[in-house]
């Protein structure tokens, strides 16, 4: 009789195998957990390192004057600013700022251009970059007129290697950051609220931009920048206001402005004196006379005259209330103004103040110049040239000039600028308008009659004598932002 199978060994073997499986499973689980933990920790460390490099923490250090500001490597109060698509304050942004600001010629300047996407700002930035200076732009791209035109200018600047930081001139933290990152030798301050009539609808915008914004910049330059830069800034021929002497000279009185815009620019000249006297900032004010040309502003008369004439709309032309003379302007072509701006920058002396707003080492340079064309032209001549260039007869509605801050005549004496830095305008109105019209029709894809090109050439060849015989001496001033030759339709 056989013995029954011994199951005790089998049971023991199964229990042992089960035990081994549990042990191995536990070890595998523990190993997996460790691997996951270590991977997560490594990823977290990499993320922290990335954020530390690109977005350093805020610092609460103070300047020598006791004014709190961010340290050299600090962010602004917010890292959500936009600088043409790049976050302000990051390593990539700083590289762009430094690269754009670096001069590429011996003895070249490093220039911060405010209002860089504006009309004059764009042309000056391109000219500076072309000759090898370092240029960094600053602009808030506001909607006073169609921002798409400013974006188009920004594209031009970008192609030439000029980086435009998108920000407001009243942003003290942004300015502090810019002066921390780059030791600018010069500032070309062109940011401002433009226009004469718009002040009657939105006066606060002029106070905010033209006065508060200018003070914010001067504060940063005096107390934050090291070294303190020399500053060239845009005043306006409108400061002459109701002055009756002509042609307008820098020695004439400027205490009777005819518009709020003019008053804010006059205030800017007085504020410049204060910062020059107290902090030793080198300051040069430029009084522009009705600047025009390609990439100009749509709210200016020559620009919307061109638009309305091509569209067959009626243009409303002003005549003086006294009825004795035509409204006339000292139209100044953009290329001439750019030469004047660069001349002022080239002859600007170093500031004498101590970084942090300390006691100045001595007197600093303080200047003001007219930049005009010296040849006032009646509005009727402006319209006639445009008719010739466009090959279209304008539909005109002549009305008396309203009391809205506009002035009837402007005429610049530029002998001071000529003597100090060789300023000499060379472009007559017919030549300048031909260049503007060519840009305008190309930009908008407009076809004009072929015959108008021939007419334009003959108009240009006789423009010098015409401008001389039709020269009108003015008894009041106007500004770069002139839109007063007509009423917008």
Compose a concise summary of this entry.
The chain is α/β, with parallel strands linked by helices and 489 residues long. The chain has helices at residues 7-54, 91-101, 119-130, 147-159, 172-181, 203-223, 260-279, 301-310, 334-346, 379-390, 415-421, 429-444, 451-461, 463-469; strands spanning 82-83, 86-87, 110-114, 134-139, 163-166, 186-189, 230-234, 283-288, 291-292, 314-319, 328-329, 332-333, 366-371, 377-378, 395-400, 486-487. One of its GO terms (cellular component) is Golgi cisterna membrane.
Give start-end ranges of low-pLDDT stretches: 52-86, 453-489
Instruction: Report on the biggest sheet.
Output: 7 strands, parallel
Shape: elongated
Strand order of the largest sheet: 5-4-3-6-7-8-13
The share of residues in extended strands comes to 5-15%
Number of distinct helices:
14
Please identify the top-level CATH class of the domain at 192-487.
Alpha Beta
Integer average pLDDT: 82
> What is the ordering of alpha helices and beta strands?
HEEHEHEHEHEHEHEEHEEEHEEHEHHHHE
Number of strands: 16
| CATH architecture field of the domain at 192-487 | 3-Layer(aba) Sandwich
- CATH fold-level label of the domain at 192-487: Rossmann fold
Helix content: 40-55%
* Cα separation of the termini: 125 Å
Q: What structural class do the secondary elements suggest?
A: alpha/beta
Question: Compute the gyration radius: what is it?
Answer: 32 Å
Write out the CATH superfamily name of the domain at 192-487: NAD(P)-binding Rossmann-like Domain
EC number: 5.1.3.6
Protein name: UDP-glucuronate 4-epimerase
Keywords: Isomerase, Membrane, NAD, Transmembrane, Transmembrane helix
Membrane topology: Multi-pass membrane protein
């Amino acid at each position: 009789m056989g013995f029954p199978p011994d199951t005790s060994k089998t049971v023991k073997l199964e229990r042992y195998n089960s035990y081994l499986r549990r042990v191995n499973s536990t070890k595998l689980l523990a190993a997996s957990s460790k691997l996951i933990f270590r991977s997560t920790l490594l990823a977290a460390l990499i993320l922290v390192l990335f954020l530390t490099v690109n977005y350093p923490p805020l610092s609460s250090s103070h300047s020598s004057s006791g004014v709190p500001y961010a340290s050299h490597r600090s962010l602004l109060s917010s890292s959500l600013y936009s600088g043409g698509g790049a976050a302000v304050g990051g390593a990539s942004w700083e590289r762009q700022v430094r690269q754009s600001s670096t001069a590429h010629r011996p003895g070249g300047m490093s220039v911060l251009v405010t209002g860089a996407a504006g009309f004059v700002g764009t042309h000056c930035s391109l000219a500076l970059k072309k000759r090898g200076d370092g240029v960094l732009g600053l602009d808030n791209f506001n909607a006073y007129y169609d921002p798409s035109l400013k974006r188009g200018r920004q594209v031009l600047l970008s192609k030439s290697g000029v980086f435009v930081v998108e920000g407001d001139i009243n942003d003290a933290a942004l300015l502090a950051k810019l002066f921390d990152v780059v030791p600018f030798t010069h500032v070309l301050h062109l940011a401002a609220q433009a226009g004469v009539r718009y002040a009657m609808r939105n006066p606060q915008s002029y106070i905010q931009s033209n006065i508060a914004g200018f003070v914010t910049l001067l504060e940063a330059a005096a107390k934050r920048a090291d070294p303190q830069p020399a500053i060239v800034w845009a005043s306006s021929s409108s400061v002459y206001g109701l002055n009756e002497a002509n042609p307008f000279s820098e020695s004439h009185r400027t205490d009777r402005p005819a518009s709020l815009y003019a008053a804010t620019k006059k205030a800017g000249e007085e504020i410049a004196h204060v910062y020059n006297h107290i902090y030793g900032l080198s300051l040069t004010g430029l009084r522009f006379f009705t600047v025009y040309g390609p990439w100009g502003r749509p709210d200016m008369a020559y620009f919307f005259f061109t638009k309305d004439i091509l569209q067959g709309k009626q243009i409303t032309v002003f005549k003086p209330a006294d009825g004795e003379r035509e409204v006339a302007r000292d139209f100044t072509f953009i290329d001439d103004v750019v030469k004047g701006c660069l001349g002022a920058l080239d002859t600007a002396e170093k500031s004498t103040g101590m970084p942090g707003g300390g006691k100045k080492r001595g007197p600093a340079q303080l200047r003001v110049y007219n930049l005009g064309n010296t040849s006032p032209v009646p509005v009727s001549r402006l319209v006639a040239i445009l008719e010739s260039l466009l090959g279209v007869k304008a539909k005109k509605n002549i009305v008396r000039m309203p009391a809205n801050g506009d002035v009837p005549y402007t005429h610049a004496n530029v002998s001071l600028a000529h003597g100090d830095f060789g300023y000499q305008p060379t472009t007559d109105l017919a030549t300048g308008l031909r260049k503007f019209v060519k840009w305008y029709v190309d930009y908008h894809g407009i076809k004009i009659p072929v015959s108008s090109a021939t007419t334009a050439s003959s108009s240009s060849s006789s423009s010098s004598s015409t401008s001389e015989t039709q020269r009108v001496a003015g008894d009041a001033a106007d500004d770069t932002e002139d839109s007063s030759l007509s009423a917008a339709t």
